[in-house]
Amino acid sequence: MVSSERNGNQASSSGDITWDRIWKLNVPLKVRVFWWRVIDGYLPTNQELHRRHVEQLARCETCGAADESIRHVMLECTMARMFWWQTKELTDVKMPNLCPSTWAKDIIDPAVVCPKEASLFLRGMWSIWHSRNRRKHGEDVVLVQLQQIRSTSGWRAPSSEVMKCNVDARFHPDELVAAAGVVIRGEHGQMIGGKSKWYASVPNALMAEALACRDGLLFAQSRGVVNLWLETDCQVLVRLWEDRVKQRSEVSFILREMAELSASFVSLTLSFAN
Asked: What GO molecular function terms would the record report (predicted)?
C-alpha cells in the first residue's frame, strides 16, 4: 500500500513538473494544451488510429513511411525535416538530437533545450500538426514557403489570361539535400496554390533549381493551368532551357521531362527573376 502511494505521488510530481515547464514557455495556451497531448500520446496519428482499428494502415500519407507516429510527424517526415531545415536557415536555431523515447519531455527540459528555443520548437510543431491535418483533408498547404518566394514585393504580374508560377530551391551542400518551393499566383498577386517538397541525394544547387522548375510545371498541370509563366532565380537554368535541344548538361534529363510537360500547356514561358 505504501509502495503504491509512493509511486502515485512520484507520477503526480512528474506530471506537475512537466506542466510547470510547459506553462513557463512563451507560447499560446492552445500550444501548451497541444504539447500536453503530445506528451500523453493523445494525437490521432495514423499509427494510433490503426492501433484502435480505425485506420487500415499506419503509414504516413505524406512521405509513405510505414508508421506515422507522433515523433515521425514532428521530426522525421519529409515535410517536418524540410520545416526544421528552413527554420535553421532563417533563425540559425537547429533542432537538437533528441532521445526517441523521451523527446517530447526533453524538448521542454531547460537542461536540454533553452526555453526560448523550446518555445520556437513547440510553435513549429503545432503548425506542422495542423498543416498535416489540412493536407489529410485535401487542402493544398505550403508549410514553409522559401524566403525568395514569400512576398509579392518586386513581383511582376502576368496578363489576365496567364497564371504565374514562381519557383525556388534551397540546397544544403553539407548534407546534399534540397527543398523546392512552388507558388502560383493570378494577375493581382492572389495566391492560387502552392507546395513544397524535400529532396535527398541532390548533387548541387543547379539540380535543385531544375527540380523546382519541374515541380512547378507538374503542379501547374495538376491545377489545370493553360497559359503559364514560370519564373526562377537561376539564370543558368533559363539559358540551358533556351538551348535545351543542343545542350548536354547534368540536368538534361530534367529539361527533357520539362519539355514533355510543356506540351500540356497552350503557352509556356520560362524566365529569370532578376
From this structure: nucleic acid binding; RNA-DNA hybrid ribonuclease activity
Residue 41: all three cell numbers together: 500520446
DSSP assignments along 79-109, one per residue: HHHHHHHHHHHHH---PPP--TTTHHHHTT-
CATH superfamily of the domain spanning 147-272: Ribonuclease H-like superfamily/Ribonuclease H (3.30.420.10)
Pick the closest to residue 69 from 134, 11, 132, 137 (CA basis). Answer: 132
Contact criterion met (CB below 8 Å) for 237 and 205:
no
Where do the CATH 3.30.420.10 domains begin and end in the chain? 147-272
Identity of residue 107: I
> In sequence order, what are the residues at sequence separation of 6 or more whose Cβ sits closer than 8 angstroms to the Cβ of residue 266?
226, 227
Q: Angle CA(73)–CA(90)–CA(156) in degrees, nearest 5?
A: 105
- Whether 73 and 45 have beta carbons less than 8 Å apart is answered as yes
Question: What are the pLDDT digits (tens) for 78-91?
Answer: 778 878 877 887 78
Give the residue carrying C-alpha cell 546534399.
176
**pTM of full prediction above 0.85:** no
Tens-place pLDDT, residues 111-144: 999 999 999 999 999 999 998 898 787 765 555 4
CA distance 228 to 266: 8
Pairing of strands 163-172, 227-232: parallel
Burial, 205: exposed, middle or buried (Cβ in 10 Å; 0-12, 13-18, 19+)?
middle
